[in-house]
């Protein structure tokens, strides 16, 4: 294969990564933007979504699309419910103190990870793609499913954007984000908004995970990379900015593939992590803004 | 004496937040030993102005000279070391520490060796005695009454042995009796320090200040002795007319 | 501290703790003897963390890098350069000091949540570096220090760190030095400034303190203590591996300090000991060790934020430092 097609292939693969990453990071960004807390367990919600997808798909019989679609609906709902319970039982009682919340979500990370290991096991398991159509390009065939992941993510991102900017729900969320006390004074049920946002954030991660399991297998340790990458995206993209999140996700998704072509994956991670840490150090105001106390 | 060099001067001092000019070209001077009050309606820029002087907020432009040195670019802690002390408008004592420890913090900083326990103890107790808090040395600051917390705030300022003590609305929330004692304390402080006072209570201002500076919309509107300010028609309109 | 404090009682208490630990050397059965030696070294790690988290109020999620800097600083120089024990220990501490200085200067430009994330990311870089330079570090697998290298010869005195009693005494010596150093720092003028920064940084600055310099000093002291723990761990237990650089080893000291009581001098020991035995006992029933860590973290922040000794101090023994 010559350079051109090679680049096209790398770009397509990068876009798939970007699409899934954008959804995951958006979840983290929403939670941070509205609630001003960092959810370290976000990657575990992603993992939980993938593991549940495998479980649900394995229960369904018949065409693989049935199991997959069932998983796409049910898995995010279960993850959202888990997040809701965690929010009510833990985060609310901590009054969303940023530091206590981080410690508590680290605790959740360990709990979810351990439960997944106990009940799901240490194996990596795939979910069958809903369809196996391959699009034949002049140079190579490409998975139609992967292209549909890009399209589906794009639609979901647009829908989120619409909800946030054009509906009353979005207005309530933005008001809460802007000023919690004033929002409360105007009769906005801040507690319920927080619970909803936390669940929504987890559900976005779970949807991303369901989309990725036909490509990448489900494993109990798969949450760490999405967590770190989401941090990177959220920090680079700027908080609460939907457009920034998407742009950064595309940037990271594409460059992730390209950097790993030139460097070893470990070195690529070292460089990426170091760059992001430096961004945080030298431009914290534009990135973590008012959250820094 | 009349041609005394000022302790502090600001030249064309400005601070903007976005489009808002909080402090808008202030030329100001204060001579050693005086008690100066800065008054003005809410939002006149008084707190921003003193925050620029003590270095909590960096100016947009202009110059601040303290004791003949340009301190415009000095960080806040260096200015405190040179003798500018600031007591906060909102009481911000260390509420989990005892009154003793609250005052020990500024005292231990002014001690050159920082180790001599005897001198530390003497310094702390003297500041507590001057503010009448000596018998509450071991009380946790958060458990003190509001009036006593304000006094503790002043004791911390005093313990820095400042040359310029900035008091930001010190009598806010104090009872009449407490205000009386407080005015006595400020007069005593002024014997060896210069005092810059932001105050809303006109009785306190008229009773304490040698000179008064009136601010409005970030600018100095008028300056003079209490009598001159009382007689100033412009001030009447902008400030006294609406509040008094 | 204020005149009401009881320095005599405080010194007696700390001396008593050290004396009990000394006596236990001769009383404990073999298994618990080994556990306690390990716990004392890890408690030093927790004490280093406590200086920054408990007293200065800076929550780092990256202290594994300081522990590992000591671990690798000592382990690599001893195994690859053939340095002696003392030189290796010094190398470990020096690595930690240098790293803490650089990380401190960078990370202290941020506060709060950003500080937590930045320290976590730097620690992640450190961890990845230990994997990247696997040629020397042997990565995840790690390497073992040769038995004959773990000896100290001082003239006619020979110490063999593979001998349990010697190892226990070496751990106790380090623990005692760091405990007394912590106590001295806490009761010093500098300690009072650190607490003031934790309580209200802006106010502390307006009392004329360069809060950045004070926080940097705290990061370096904390880093040095953690590196000393790491170096001691490498030399006493003879194993060096990148596991100790993972995020988990940044979380553990936080857990130990929270459990024992942040901003108490003895809390780190209590927390480390308690957690070690909780895991040890439950591992008889379940392998779900992380589950216990997770549940403990959540229960602590929810219901017990002051930890064991913090609660004891609040309710009963006010003079506890």
From TrEMBL, chain A:
One of its GO terms (cellular component) is plasma membrane. It is found in: Cell membrane. The chain crosses the membrane at residues 15-38, 45-62, 68-90, 102-122, 142-164, 193-215, 227-254, 261-282. It holds the Pfam family BPD_transp_2. The keyword Transmembrane applies. Keywords: Amino-acid transport, Cell membrane, Membrane, Transmembrane, Transmembrane helix, Transport. InterPro entries: ABC_transp_permease, BCAA_transport_permease. One of its GO terms (molecular function) is transmembrane transporter activity. It is a multi-pass membrane protein. GO terms for biological process: amino acid transport. The keyword Membrane applies. Belongs to the binding-protein-dependent transport system permease family. LivHM subfamily. This is Branched-chain amino acid ABC transporter permease.
UniProtKB/TrEMBL annotation, chain C:
Its main location: membrane. It is a multi-pass membrane protein. Keywords: Cell membrane, Membrane, Transmembrane, Transmembrane helix. GO terms for cellular component: plasma membrane. The keyword Nucleus does not apply. The chain crosses the membrane at residues 12-29, 35-52, 89-108, 115-134, 168-195, 216-239, 251-279, 286-304. GO terms for molecular function: branched-chain amino acid transmembrane transporter activity. It is found in: Cell membrane. Pfam families: BPD_transp_2. This is Branched-chain amino acid ABC transporter permease. It comes from Allomesorhizobium camelthorni.
């Amino acid at each position: 294969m010559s350079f051109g097609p090679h680049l096209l292939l790398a770009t397509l693969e990068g876009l798939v990564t970007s699409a899934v990453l954008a959804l995951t990071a958006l979840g983290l960004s929403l939670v941070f933007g509205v609630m001003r807390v960092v959810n370290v367990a976000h990657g575990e919600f992603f993992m939980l979504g993938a593991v549940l997808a495998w479980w649900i798909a394995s229960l369904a019989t018949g065409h693989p699309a049935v199991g997959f679609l069932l998983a796409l609906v049910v898995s995010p709902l279960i993850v959202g419910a888990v997040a809701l319970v965690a929010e009510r039982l833990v985060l609310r009682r901590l009054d969303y103190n940023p530091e206590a919340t981080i410690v508590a979500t680290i605790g959740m990370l360990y709990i979810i990870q351990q439960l997944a290991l106990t009940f799901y096991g240490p194996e990596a398991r795939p979910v069958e793609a809903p369809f196996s159509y391959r699009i034949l390009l002049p140079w190579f065939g490409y998975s139609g499913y992967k292209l549909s992941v890009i399209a589906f993510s794009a639609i979901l991102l647009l829908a989120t954007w619409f909800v946030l900017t054009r509906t009353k729900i979005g207005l309530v969320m933005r008001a809460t984000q802007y000023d919690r006390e004033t929002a409360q004074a105007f009769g906005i049920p801040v507690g319920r908004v927080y619970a909803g946002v936390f669940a929504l954030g987890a559900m976005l991660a779970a949807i991303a995970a369901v989309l990725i399991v036909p490509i990448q297998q489900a494993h109990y340790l798969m949450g760490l990379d999405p967590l770190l990458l989401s941090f990177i995206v959220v920090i680079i993209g700027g908080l609460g900015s939907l457009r920034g999140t998407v742009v950064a996700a595309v940037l990271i998704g594409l460059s992730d593939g390209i950097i790993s072509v030139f460097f070893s994956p470990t070195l690529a991670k070292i460089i990426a992590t170091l760059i992001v840490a430096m961004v945080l150090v030298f431009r914290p105001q534009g990135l973590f803004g008012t959250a820094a106390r | 004496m009349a041609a005394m060099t000022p302790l502090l001067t600001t030249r064309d001092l400005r601070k903007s937040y976005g489009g808002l000019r909080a402090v808008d070209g202030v030329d100001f001077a204060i001579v050693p030993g005086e008690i100066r009050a800065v008054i003005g309606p809410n939002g006149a820029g008084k707190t921003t102005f003193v925050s620029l002087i003590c270095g909590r907020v960096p100016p947009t432009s202009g110059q601040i000279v303290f004791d003949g040195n340009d301190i415009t670019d000095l960080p806040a802690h260096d200015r405190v070391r040179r003798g500018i002390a600031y007591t906060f408008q909102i009481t911000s004592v260390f509420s989990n520490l005892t009154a003793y420890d609250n005052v020990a913090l500024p005292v231990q900083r002014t001690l050159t060796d920082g180790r001599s326990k005897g001198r530390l103890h003497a310094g702390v107790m003297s500041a507590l005695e001057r503010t009448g808090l000596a018998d509450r040395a071991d009380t946790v600051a958060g458990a003190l009454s509001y009036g006593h917390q304000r006094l503790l705030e002043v004791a911390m300022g005093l313990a820095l042995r400042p040359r310029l003590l900035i008091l930001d609305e010190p009598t806010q929330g104090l009872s009449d009796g407490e205000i009386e004692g407080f005015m006595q304390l400020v007069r005593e402080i002024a014997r060896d320090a210069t005092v810059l006072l932001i105050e809303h209570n006109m009785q306190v201002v008229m009773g304490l200040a040698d000179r008064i500076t009136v601010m409005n919309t970030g600018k100095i509107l008028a300056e003079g002795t209490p009598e001159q300010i009382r007689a100033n028609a412009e001030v009447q309109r902008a400030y006294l007319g609406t509040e008094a | 501290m204020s005149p009401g404090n009881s320095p005599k009682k405080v010194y007696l208490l700390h001396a008593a703790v050290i004396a009990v630990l000394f006596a236990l050397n001769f009383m404990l059965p073999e298994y618990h003897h080994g556990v306690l030696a390990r716990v004392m070294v890890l408690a030093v790690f927790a004490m280093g963390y406590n200086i920054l988290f408990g007293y200065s109020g800076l929550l780092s999620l990256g202290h594994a890098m300081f522990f590992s800097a000591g671990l690798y600083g000592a382990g690599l120089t001893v195994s690859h350069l053939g340095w002696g024990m003392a030189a290796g220990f010094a190398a470990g501490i020096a690595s930690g000091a240098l790293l803490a200085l650089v990380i401190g200067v960078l990370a202290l430009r941020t506060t709060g949540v950003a500080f937590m994330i930045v320290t976590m990311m730097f620690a992640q870089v450190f961890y990845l570096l230990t994997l990247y330079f696997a040629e020397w570090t042997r990565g995840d697998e790690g390497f073992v220090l040769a038995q004959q290298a773990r000896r100290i010869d001082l003239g006619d005195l020979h110490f063999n760190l593979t001998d349990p009693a010697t190892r226990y005494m070496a751990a106790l010596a380090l623990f005692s030095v760091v405990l007394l150093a912590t106590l001295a720092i806490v009761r010093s003028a500098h300690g009072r400034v650190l607490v003031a920064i934790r309580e209200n940084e802006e106010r502390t600055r307006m009392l004329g303190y360069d809060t950045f310099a004070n926080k940097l000093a705290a990061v370096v002291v904390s880093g040095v203590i953690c590196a000393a723990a790491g170096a001691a761990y490498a030399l006493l237990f003879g194993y060096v591996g990148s596991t100790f650089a993972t995020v988990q080893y940044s979380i553990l000291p936080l857990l130990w300090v929270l459990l024992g009581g942040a901003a108490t001098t003895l809390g780190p020991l209590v927390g480390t000991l308690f957690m070690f035995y909780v895991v040890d006992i439950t591992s008889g029933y379940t392998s779900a060790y992380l589950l216990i860590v997770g549940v403990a973290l959540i229960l602590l922040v929810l219901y017990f934020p002051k930890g064991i000794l913090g609660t004891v101090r609040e309710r009963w023994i006010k003079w506890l430092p």
